[in-house]
Amino acid sequence: MLEISQESDQGTILKATGSWTIDQARGIWTELKKHLNGNLAIDLQGIDRMDSSGFQLLITAKAMSQKSGNICKLLNHSLPVLKMMDLAGVLGSMRDQVRISASNKEALQLTYSRNRYSI
Hints:
Blueprint: E1 2-8, E2 11-20, H1 25-32, E3 40-50, H2 52-67, E4 72-75, H3 79-88, H4 102-108
Parallel strand pairs: 2-3, 3-4
Antiparallel strand pairs: 1-2
Helix pairs in contact: 1-2
């Protein structure tokens, strides 16, 4: 679910994988909160399934990092993450750079964020 990809004085990069759903939320949060005491980047490319519980973990991590004066960035958004962000209507407002490949552009089919975010 989460593993350290890189650590330095500037912060930690975590690689997120698998299914981020209600069934795994407790275990993911237990691991994620260990890293919220410093700058953090979460590589989301390996997430193959996400529901609102998994998305809430990302939002909470960003909020807690900001509150403590740290940075939490989301990188390499997978298609399930992009779809969840679109459904929540925050695709263009999370302040993380989103890159969408040409192959994913057709599969994404934005619904809620279509008017606020250009791809």
